[in-house]
């Protein structure tokens, strides 16, 4: 893993240098987020974020294609697994939320070693990647569900059986599947699926992210159960923000989180009568 992460750091910088559009999005998203209260901290954080983004690609070789015994050992620390066991005991299912933070792939596999888990995924633009993605994620008790009507039905059925499901809560949904809600002070089209799944099932909602440890030592898994009484899209984004602030260099700032999906109405006008900036 240390070698993979070293190669990933280099890859992150190569992509940052050769893709001006990606570099512009990463820097703009990071600066606009406000996670750096001190300007002197911005440059070191930017450098770390560039490297961490590359690590997120190269580590897939170990996570997706390593032998089962090796992958099972990658999470070397886990905080608050007791909240998962308590949620399982209640019997209404669990909704695991893994933002684009740290190694979100290993978070799902850690859960799949211990319980049935149906994971929602969006098919990649490169069709040849899809079978590799499915193979890498379909281990132990994990089942993959495509991000379409059939896949959503699979999530509902899994929760009805009292099982666990997993999804990326900060993934930009398609038109008609989200609402505008602030994310780090800017309007982001935010999925309504989490709220609908929870209201239908009364499932527990648990935020999970696997922090990369230095020198390829593995991952520390952080778990936190969210209150569900008022878990609307604004509250969901605030919960993601709180996790990102714990480890901002490992968030995927280059992801196009603020785009307007094709066919969607732009965000509502601000009090000043204009529209807050979003990406098309």
Note down, in words, how this protein is organized.
The protein has 11 helices and 9 strands. It is an alpha/beta fold and 280 residues long. Strands 1-9-8-2-5-3-4 form a 7-stranded mixed β-sheet, with helices on both faces. Strands 6-7 form a two-stranded antiparallel ribbon. The chain is globular. The relative contact order is 0.17. Residues 270-275 have low confidence and may be disordered.
Secondary structure topology:
Elements: H1 2-18, H2 20-33, H3 42-58, H4 60-65, H5 68-72, E1 75-79, H6 82-90, E2 94-97, H7 104-112, E3 117-121, H8 129-137, E4 142-146, H9 149-160, E5 164-167, E6 178-183, E7 186-191, H10 193-201, E8 204-212, E9 219-226, H11 233-246
Parallel strand pairs: 1-9, 2-5, 2-8, 3-4, 3-5
Antiparallel strand pairs: 6-7, 8-9
Note the main attributes of this structure:
seven-stranded mixed β-sheet; 280 residues; 11 helices; alpha/beta; two-stranded antiparallel ribbon
- Report the strand count: 9
Largest sheet: 7 strands, mixed
The N- to C-terminal Cα distance equals: 37 Å
Can you count the helices? 11
Radius of gyration: 18 Å
H/E element order: HHHHHEHEHEHEHEEEHEEH
Instruction: Output mean pLDDT.
Output: 93
Strand content: 15-25%
Secondary-structure-derived class: alpha/beta
Helix content: 40-55%
How are strands sequenced across the largest beta sheet? 1-9-8-2-5-3-4
The poorly predicted ranges are 270-275
Form type: globular
Can you give me a brief rundown of this structure?
The chain is of the alpha/beta class. The protein has helices at residues 2-18, 20-33, 42-58, 60-65, 68-72, 82-90, 104-112, 129-137, 149-160, 193-201, 233-246, and strands at 75-79, 94-97, 117-121, 142-146, 164-167, 178-183, 186-191, 204-212, 219-226.
